[in-house]
Every structure is written in C-alpha cells, then in structure tokens.
Design a protein that fits this description.
Length: about 800
Amino acid sequence: MVFMAVAEIIVDVPTMQTNRPFEYLIPDSLSDVVVPGMRVEVPFGRGKRKIQGFVMQVKATSDFQGKLKPISRVIDLKPVLSDEMLQLSYWLADRTYSFQISCLQTMLPSVMRAKYKQYVIPLDNEDTEVQTLLDGKETLEITNQLDDATIRLINKLRQNNKIDIQYVVENQALQIKRQAVTTNLNVIQLHEAKSKLRANAKSQIKLLDFLAHHLEELPVELNVLQKEFGISRSAIKTAEKNQLLQITEVTKLRKPVGIDPEKTTKLKLTEEQRVAVSEISDAIQSETPQTFLVEGVTGSGKTEVYLQTIEKALQQDKTALMLVPEISLTPQMVNRVVGRFGNQVAVLHSGLSSGERYDEWTRIENHDVKVVVGARSAVFAPLNKIGLIIIDEEHEASYKQDDNPRYNARDVALWRAQMNHCPVVLGSATPSLESRARAEKGVYRLIRMKKRINNQNLPHVQIVDMRDAENSATKGDFSPALKEGLQTTLQRHEQAIVLLNRRGYSSFMMCRECGFVLKCPNCDVSLTYHKDLGKMKCHYCGHEEPVPRVCPNCKSKKIGFYGTGTQNIEQQLNTLFPEARVLRMDVDTTRRKGSHAKILQKFGQHQADILLGTQMIAKGLDFPDVTLVGVINADTTLSLADFRASERTFQLLTQVSGRAGRADKTGHVVIQTFNPDHYAIKDAAKQDYETFFKQEMYIRHQANYTPYYFTTLISVANKDEGQTLKQSYWLKKQLETSLSKDAILLGPSPTMISRKQNKYYYQIIVKYKHEPQLHQKLLEILNETQADAKKGFTIAIDNEPQHID
Ligand SMILES: Nc1ncnc2c1ncn2[C@@H]1O[C@H](COP(=O)(O)OP(=O)(O)OP(=O)(O)O)[C@@H](O)[C@H]1O
Ligand SMILES: [Zn+2]
Ligand SMILES: [Zn+2]
C-alpha cells in the first residue's frame, strides 16, 4: 500500500474563494515532520508563487481527483497553535464573518507574523546526535538551505526534548548587547559580605540587598539597576572590584524585571465573598462549564474572590486566565495577582514590546506559568488545562475588537470554557444588560455582593443642576458645591478625583461669528488643538495644520476654542486651589510608555491631591485616601448617538463614584449635569444597578434593542459617495429578500463620521430575533462583494456591535 499523507491547509490568501482548507501532499521527506498547527510554505495557483499556510489536519488519503501539489517546506518546526486553537478558528471565522486565516494570525503574537529567525537551542549537550547537528557550534540557525534529512533530525531531537527551537525577531532591541550584573555568590555569602561592610557604606549595602533578593532574576541590566532601583554605577564598579558581582553582556532579557510586589496572603473572606468563592470552587472541582455573573457593588472585594478561586484552580493542577480591560492593567491590578502567585504569572499588556510579548507567550506555551493576566487578546493565550476564566469589568466595550476579526473576548472565553470544562466568572459592579439578562433567565448563575468591605457605606452622591443660575458656565466649570467639596478635601489632607467626561475630542475651534468649525480636510471630524505641538491635529488620519488666527470662512477674529479640555480644567483648578498638587491624566500625558502607571503610582503615594482625568481614571482604582469624586459634565455620554448611551452613562458614573470612600473614610461625590432627572444619573447616584436594569430593560423592550433583539451592523465604504449609497441600497434589497417580516432594517445612513481617510461610510443595521437565513445570506453578500473590493469597496459585518456611530 502506498502511504500518501495529505495535509489540509488554510492558505494566507485572505479572500472569500480561498476561505477553506486546501489539500497538499506531504512529501516523504517531511512525513513525520508535518503536524497540525504548524505553518508551511506551499505553491499556490499557477506560476511559481509560494505562500504561507497553516496545517489544520493531516490525513492518510484524499478524495481529490486531480493531482495534488506537495508542501514546499515547513516554516515552523513545532506547532505554533494547539488543536484547541485550530478548532476555535473555525468557530471564530464563522461568528465574526472573517477569513479563517485572519483568525489564525490573530491568535499568534505579532512577532511571529514579523520577520524572525529560528535557532536550534541544545538542551542535551551530551547527546551525540545533538553534537553532530551543531557540529561544535553553540546554536544552529534554521534556514531553508537545510536539507530534508537535517530537518527530520531536528524534528526528532525536538520531540525527544534534546533540543528546543527559539524564535528571535530581527530588528528587535532584544538582540542589542547590554551590560548586565550577575553574581557567583549565594544568599548566605551575600549576607556574609554585607556584614563585613562598614555601616556607612550605604550604597554597597543596598546593592548587596538587591542581589540577595533578586538572585533568581539575574542577570539584571545595568541601566535597570540604576534607573529603577537607584543603584549608582560607582557602587556597581566597587562591588565588581571586590568580586561581589560580575558584569556580563546579555543579548536577550529574561522576564522584564520590575519592582517586586509585596507578597500577599489570603484575606479572611466576608460572608458574601465566602459564598462566591465556594460556589465557583465547586464548579472548578466538578469541571462544570458554568458561567457566573458576580454583580458586586464597587469596593465589595471582587478581586479577592478572583484570587482565591484562581488558587483553587491551581490546587487542582489547572491553569487560570484572567482578562481585564487594558486600562485597568495598572500596577495595582497586576501587583495584586503577581503578589499572590509570584512568577507563576505571565502578564500580557500593550506596554510590552513585541519581543517581550513573545517571551511571555513562550513562557505560557512552555507551561512555565500557570496564570495569565491580560487584556482582550490574552483570551488566545496558549494555556493548557484551563481550570478557570475570569473577566473583570465584563461590561467594558474594549473586550470587543473594532477591526477584523471583530470578536468579543467574552464570547471566546465562553467557547474555551466549554472546551476546557471550566467555569467562567464575569465580574462587574455594572454588568452589561446582555449578561444581566442572561442571568435573569438562568443561563448564567447570578452571585450578588451587595456590601462594601468593612460594611463601609457607599459614597454619598450630590447631583448638581447646572441649569441653575448660580452654576452658570460663565463662572467657570466648577459649581459652588464642587468647589466647596474640593476645599474640604484639601483641608483634611485627603484626595480627590475629578472626571472630565469627554467624547474623545478635547477642544475644537469654532467661530463665534459664523459658526464655522475647523475640520480635517480628509475625515470630516473636528481638528483638535494640541498644546504641546502648538498645532491643530486630526485624530483619525494625523493631518495637522497651524492654529488659525482669523476665521477661514468669514475672516472674523472671533474664532476660538470651544469645549473644555483637561488642560483648561487643570488651569481652572490651579487658579481655584493654588496650593493643591494636581495630576492630569489624559491622552496627552499618557502617550509615553509607562506614564499611565507612573501617574497612578504617584497619586497612590499621595504625592498629589487631585487626580484629574478622562474616562481612563473611572474604574478599578483603589486608593484609600480618596474621599471626593467630582464629575464635571455627566451629560456628554448621554448625548452619544448610540442606543447604549444611558447604559454607558450609568456605568461611567457608578464606576467613578465608586472610587470614593473605599477604606475607612466616608466618600462624597458631586455630579454636575444638565439632566438631573434622567434615570441613568439618578440611579448611578444611588449606585442602584438593579433599578437601572429594570428601567433600561423596559426601554430596550419598547425600542426593540439588545438584549431583546440581536443586532448586526453592516457598513459599506467607498471613495465615491454616490457609489457607496448605491451599494448600500443594493445590499439592503438583498437582505430584505431573505429576512422575515419580524426583522427590522435601518438605514442606509451615513455614519456619525461619514468620511474617514477619504472614504465614505454608510451603514445598515439589522435587528432580529430569529432569522435562520441571515447568516448564510451575509456570507453570500460578502462573497459577491469580494470582486468589488478591487474597485475600492469594502463591506464590514459587525456581529453585536459595541458602538454604533
Ligand atoms: N476579605 C477582605 N478583608 C479585608 N479587606 C478586603 C477583603 N476583601 C477585599 N478587601 C479590600 O477591599 C478593597 C476593595 O476590594 P476590590 O478592589 O477587590 O473591590 P472591587 O469589588 O473590585 O471594586 P471595584 O468594582 O470598585 O473595582 C481592597 O483594598 C481590598 O484589598
Ligand atoms: Zn483626518
Ligand atoms: Zn467665521
């Protein structure tokens, strides 16, 4: 019998026609090398074109009648995606209307899509075959020059754990050689050396202490020692002279060294926490893929519930995945997890360079870590045997990716939980309506935590009506009530958080004579003033121009800034309270890597009295000295052109109010608004989620919105506005023929920003309850419009969109 192994491969040609596996022959020379999850190079189409592909499956025979082409070569010598991930890609592509290849790529760290080299790293230097392979060298670069026999040998040795394969990114800082410090001494010797020093040799003592505490992380880069730990170069030189340490060169860093968080131990649980931990633990133990919705008021101690259930999973010899919104990936949150589980934790956040990210990914893949904490894309972490998945602040829109593939990490988590037979915990003080409604129906198990830790009261909230004359905007943005509150807080040496609720723009220019607004010539959005650049800038395409002195439209000099920016509020604060130390946190002050964390750290150490910021300061922060929260303009989110406007407003106000009075001092909140009677504002003031939920559900029911209806958003983009409209109407007609009478079709309408980067955008919204044809129809439409993509058309389908604008 002729053995003719065949591989099913998803090729890297993102079109509708190629969105299915293609069969290729596995040449004899690669017969036991090619396995699912590996990337290979294959010939594609006519001509000599070679492209990348993912091996999805390997089988013994093929039904294909024609002649199959053989795989040209393997790109990876070990699978980069597990079977679980390969399966996930089918589901994900289907659910998000994306090409499967995009889904597969999304699951890998970006580095693996960039240029990199692969090296053989010997694990067993005694092995004769390893010695032959390396031929006296330290490592062997894997290139496409290697013959098949060598590739097979490499593969065999890898499977027997004699060697490993490492990816090294080209053009990464990682490869730059850096000076680093290490030592031959052990802890005891370091302590002995320290005891021999004179008491005034402070910097030497500090250095030896550092070494003793960080032995496992050595070598540590010289400049990290200097910058992060304040150890001088001369101290290092002296110690080197005395042979207490050695200076070496490192090419690749181990885990990025930070200041070690303090080790924490289990807290004694409150009764509400105990119930939550016990229910979730039972599900972990019994491997039940149950979803829990932990609805706990702000400051009820949800984090401790997460930590103790993670511990439970680890005790069961399983792993745990914890997702948090990117913006909450502050040292505070990370420290809480790392403080409890130490180096068993990998952290994936955008602050890492792509190389560091890859390192963390590798640690997960090698089973060096048991807990992964990360933002949205961490949901694809290559963890094995997951025992628990946690999604903190589950209501956050940022769990949904805005670009292709438009996935919601919450849905992916639920899918993985089914595969891994493990529970999912969704936690929030303000759950999304969708999740809370599912709990109502019994699909999710609802666990409520109604009390704050130590039975601390929820903060007292005062709503200030900005329509009253005494609060008139002519007197500035601070009402007498808020000014008074700030005054008292400062006198008591406590801290305040001031929220400026913005829609994304800071200050734009408007002519008070003719109403002209300065806009981007490409994008149809207002240009924003950037003080540091002294220029007007577009937030979409980056276009910039000088600040106009006269109105380009009517030549009047009465053109000026409109809308309040954080810088403006900061100036007002400085004038009102000259003695107060104000920290400002917005896009401008957090542009540099790590600055976000630094500002919070400073505020946490009470080196400032007032933290002023945009939405990014609203959630997750836990500072015991904060007793006042002020909201300058509660209404901005309320006027969003989005059916979730009330929900977003309620969430924002409840979350930010929840920052006040979390420890032993009582909190106070001042909310300034032009809509003091709106239920979203009134319920937020009482931190009353349940009442808000009932009211909002009623309104959603009346208006046929989520969670009573499913929503799909289809947008059409083209450089020619007329064509965009034509295409949109064609699309609508197509949909109409396949939908039942119960479905609701809205649009086509221009999006809020109808022109971005010289393209026009129109959208159609489908609201429906049960439309078995819709999915297939949308796939067909995608298929048909594919050909038009070349003419500049693009169609995007967003299942359950988080923003409609
Ligand atoms: N059992 C406990 N005993 C003592 N202190 C606790 C306990 N559980 C939690 N805490 C403390 O209570 C504070 C609030 O807890 P945590 O930050 O987890 O609240 P949360 O529910 O996540 O709130 P939010 O939704 O506002 O972020 C923290 O400082 C935490 O250390
Ligand atoms: Zn622009
Ligand atoms: Zn004008």
